[in-house]
Task: structure prediction
Amino acid sequence: MNKDESTEITDVEQSRGLMPLEDDPEIEEPTLDDGGGDRTMYEHFRFVADPGQQILRVDKFLTTRLEHSSRNRVQQAAAADCILVNGKPVKSNYKVKPGDVIQIVMDRPRYETEIIAEDIPLDIVYEDDDLLVVNKPAGLVVHPGHGNWTGTLVNALAYHLRDIPDYDPSDPRMGLVHRIDKDTSGLLVVAKTPRAKTHLGKQFFEKTTERRYVAVVWGCPNPKEGTVETLIGRDIRDRLRMAVVDNSDIGKRAVTHYKVLNPLGPVSVVTCVLETGRTHQIRVHMSHLGHPLFADARYGGDKILRGENSGAYRKFVNDCFDICPRQALHAMTLGFTHPVTGERMHFETPVPTDITTLISRFQERLNATV
Result:
């Protein structure tokens, strides 16, 4: 967002429903800055103090002008350098003077609409006062974005946590700590407090979490166990795709450790352990190795890439596409340290039926040809 796109808000009614906008809802990376430099900050609210404004602390000034926001939340925003006066961060005790320009900024753009709490079923693996772990089904968008303002995991969480007074689904200081793609299934951790979000986000940044995925890929990677380390950035020819790039100005370091579990002829079952969490990282890295994920339309895995040239085989694979019509990728394992108790937490969820059935079909076919 550039300066011309910012919106001056002079009325509480105008401030309703303005929340951060995610450019791409299919993201696997933590929501925090990755440590690569200064954060890009986006203006969410702007107020200009009237000429007759009495001297008043900025936290009191903003509390009276922001709907659904407590003084404590404003103070936390100030502590995070998210409140600017005349372009500079201020603390909550700053005294607002006539003519001051007060901005609230965040590290992501605004939503274009309000998050609506929706009664969408959730598979909750674990929950306590500080966090919850969700097993997301394939097909569920994680975060609201263009074309998906409702029906997302965030909408479901807003409903599930609706009775917690301090939980605000629009507040980036709580909620999702990391993300997985719409058509990827598996485990996600959600922070219910700013303290939990900060602590968990730090673990993702410092790579002390455990994230293990199961995937079905075309062919069999050689060697059968290895590490892929590249830069990943937006594909300049197709902004919906990511790509391996050689320019650090447009790409970020991405590291994936993989291991072949079960070679099944035309396809293989692999595990992938993420050291970093870039957008589409596993999908890009497997494609980069020449082994796209089965049924991954965005990276070429929705075509028959291995196997014999026969009508019977083509029918078999097309039937498999019907069984698993999404990229065959599941976030099976998630481990982290509890942000409050310090206990090491470990969660594992079974591979869903569409992927297990897909594996069984290829295994049966392989057995029949031996």
Residues 141 and 152 are 5 Å apart (CA to CA). The two ends are 59 Å apart (CA to CA). The longest strand covers residues 251-263.
